[in-house]
Design goal:
CATH class of one domain: Mainly Beta
CATH topology of one domain: Beta-galactosidase, Chain A, domain 5
Shape: globular
Helix content: 25-40%
CATH superfamily of one domain: putative glycoside hydrolase family protein from bacillus halodurans
Strand content: 15-25%
Structural class: alpha+beta
CATH architecture of one domain: Distorted Sandwich
Largest sheet: 7 strands, antiparallel
């Protein structure tokens, strides 16, 4: 018997209807979003991919960190069997950085005693958990979800056999942040019990709100919830033969929309993979632009001062702590100048002016950083990690000042810094950690390679940069004794950046493959248990799963300040692949298909007037067309060999590159490719073989 809330038919709304149901997006009125909504496959393709990515627990989950979870970006709920086996526990918390540290619990207590068995399934497509419990007296079937925008947990339970009246009991000895406790309301109808719950520090108001949620039409609540999620997933698509990576991609989109708190600083609420996946509406950048969350004025100074290294307390770089690279990534993928003007430029100005006061000048006029801390490795002068962030910030501060037409009295000083900042120390192994300090031991973080990825100071599209990029990556990657999950995720993106797809996929599978190494492998719900011995200073940036999600997309579409690359690091085994609706630097939207080991066609939607340099990979018999408003013409393209072209596009124009005589975008657009059925099925089960 099914214990769902209401109608269980899958909604098949159009992309436009779904976007309306989801609410207003932050760039919904601009040409960018109109173009982003046009490309992409029909709903059946997404539905099949998401149903395939479901998570299954054939036995009772007892590890809270590895348990299935639900969330709506406000409230989160983890679901597992209590230690004593006598209750199904719903652990409630607030979305955000510490979402999984919930201390408020609501227990479903069967009337028939201890739980003797359990099966459950998390549908990513519907963002709903369903399952069954067996007890010594009978059985229970249940359904649970956190309806989008309601901030409450809804659970429906039906008793069967000898089970009678089940009860929901808040754990009396636990409280959440600021004294919050669980407030819940139950309603019974025969053997069926429905409950709504939330956490609050104001019990009377909380109970009224819970009652209103429970009193709403169950079918309408469920339908609205599913419509939001279906529209969310349909904003982009990818299909690859490696089902482990494909399922993982969808799982990370689900996780981001469930547990991120968009009111937190971008460093914690805007992982970069969301920009590539066309989901900039999900993170904290959109909320900041809407004046509903974090703002640059809230960026507080850290305690560490250049010149003291790790001796003066927390050592996080200000630019990283304030999320400046995350803001830049959102800007370069969307082209939304509000990000540049309102968020990024003010942060860059504050940070660059701060570090300017600590720089020292050598006899040759070079500007040097005093001792700072290379995360988790050493205190060092001219620390490459800090130098790369400062060089990046100074360059983009100058560029944004010009682009925005601003008058900045310190512009001359910034230009001096950009031209005279100390170069990175190098040796035969590539770029060093800092002045006089070479990487001589395994290190979990590749923070001295930040210039390579994700700041793209050096670019594979420039042949003169390649040798330094390759040497630096290989030197770090050959020493893996101290690597953890984050290391393999970062390593995959670095490998993709230097066009080494096989190592990139190997690194990802080491992280995703379900191996027993707790310091590396993901948990059953695709989360990662961070290596506690590493310490907080080793891990700036997103957690391992989000970093790995970015790496998956780096294999398929990437872009540096010079060139947009499609299928830049696809392994040879991926004979077929398909993407649609992915964003790329330069505010482009990309659809593409690979067939029989070769790129079949690429379509690039330009949202702004600019010159596109495209590495398309079709080296022979390529055809180029530009479309706009239903009209098509041959493109005026400059071809530079090795499957690279340059073309000037107006806003709203679409460049199509295809192989002469080969397939064209159309019926097969966004198609599913043949699967490698050995891919991992996420959840408590073993990998499927």
């Amino acid at each position: 018997m099914n214990a769902g809330f209401g109608r269980r038919t899958f909604l098949r709304t159009s992309a436009g209807t779904g976007l309306a149901a989801a609410g207003a997006f932050w760039v919904a009125a601009t040409p960018q979003e109109a173009l982003a909504a046009e490309p992409g496959p029909g709903p059946d393709l997404h539905e099949r991919a998401l149903l395939d990515a479901r998570m299954e627990w054939p036995t009772a989950p007892r590890d809270r960190q590895a348990a299935p979870f639900l969330g709506d970006g406000s409230l989160t709920a983890q679901v597992y069997v209590r230690e004593d086996g006598k209750a199904l526990r719903f652990s409630l918390g607030r979305a955000g950085r510490d979402w999984d540290a919930a201390a408020t619990h609501l227990d479903l207590v069967p009337s028939g005693g201890a739980i003797t068995g359990m099966r459950c399934e998390l549908s990513l497509w519907n963002a709903e958990l369903t399952g069954s419990l067996t007890t010594s007296a009978g059985s229970l079937t249940f359904s649970a979800l956190v309806p989008r925008g309601r901030g409450a947990l809804l659970v429906s339970v039906t008793a069967e056999g000898g089970e009678r009246e089940t009860s929901f009991t808040p754990a009396a000895d636990t409280t959440g942040r600021e004294g919050e406790r669980v407030a819940h309301v139950e309603r019974r109808n025969g053997t069926r019990t429905r409950v709504a719950a939330l956490i609050s520090s104001v019990p009377p108001k909380a109970e009224d709100r819970v009652a209103s949620v429970l009193g709403a039409d169950a079918g309408s609540v469920t339908d609205e919830h599913r419509a939001w999620w279906h529209a969310f997933y349909r904003r982009s698509h990818l299909s690859v033969p490696d089902r482990t990576l494909q399922r993982f991609h969808w799982a990370q989109l689900y996780t981001a929309a469930s547990v991120l708190d968009a009111h937190e600083p971008p460093a914690h609420s805007a992982p970069t993979f969301l920009n590539r996946a066309n989901h900039t509406e999900t993170g904290g950048v959109a909320t900041a632009l809407g004046k509903g969350g974090w703002s640059p004025e809230q960026a507080v100074p850290t305690m560490a001062f250049p010149g003291t290294g790790s001796k003066s307390g927390p050592v996080e770089n200000r630019l990283a702590a304030w999320g400046a690279p995350a803001l830049w990534d959102a800007y370069r993928h969307t082209g939304d100048e509000r990000i540049l003007r309102e968020l990024l430029h003010p942060l860059l100005r504050r940070a660059v002016d701060y570090y300017s006061g600590f720089l020292t000048t050598s006899r040759d006029g070079t500007l040097h950083l005093p001792v700072t801390h290379s995360p988790g490795y050493a205190d060092v002068v001219d620390c490459t990690y800090d130098l790369s962030l400062l060089r990046w910030a100074t360059t983009h501060l100058i560029d944004s000042t010009r682009h925005l037409g601003l008058t900045e009295p310190r512009l001359a000083r910034w230009q001096e810094m950009a031209s005279k900042l100390a170069p990175y120390e190098k040796d035969d192994a590539g770029v060093r950690v800092g002045a006089g300090v070479r990487l001589t031991r395994s290190h979990a973080g590749a923070w001295h390679l930040l210039w390579l990825h994700p700041l793209y100071e050096k670019s594979w599209s420039r042949k003169e940069d390649r040798e330094l990029m390759r040497r630096s990556f290989e030197h770090w990657a050959q020493m893996r004794e101290e690597w953890d999950g984050r290391s393999y995720a970062i390593g995959a993106s670095l490998a993709a950046a230097v066009r080494k797809p096989e190592p990139a996929v190997e690194f990802l599978h080491r992280l995703l493959g379900g191996k027993s190494d707790a310091a590396v492998a993901l948990l059953a719900n695709t989360r990662h248990r961070q290596n506690a011995s590493a310490g907080p200073a080793v891990a700036p940036g997103p957690p391992a799963p989000f970093a790995a999600a970015q790496a998956v997309l780096d294999l398929l579409v990437s872009g540096d300040p010079h060139t947009l690359s499609v299928f830049p690091a696809v392994p040879k085994e991926w004979r077929d692949a398909s993407v649609s609706g992915l964003r790329a630097p330069g505010a482009y939207v990309v659809d593409a298909a690979r067939a029989d080991g070769r790129t079949a066609w690429i379509r690039v939607h330009s949202t702004q007037a600019r010159t596109l340099t495209l590495e398309h990979g079709i080296k022979d018999n390529a055809e180029f067309h530009v479309e706009k408003g239903g009209r098509s013409r041959r493109a005026d393209v400059k071809v530079s060999g090795d499957g690279v072209c340059a073309v000037r596009l107006a806003a709203g124009e679409v460049l199509t590159v295809s192989r002469r005589g080969g397939p064209k975008p159309g019926a097969d657009e966004g198609h599913e490719v043949a699967a490698n059925e050995s891919g991992r099925r996420w959840g408590g089960s073993e990998p499927k073989v």
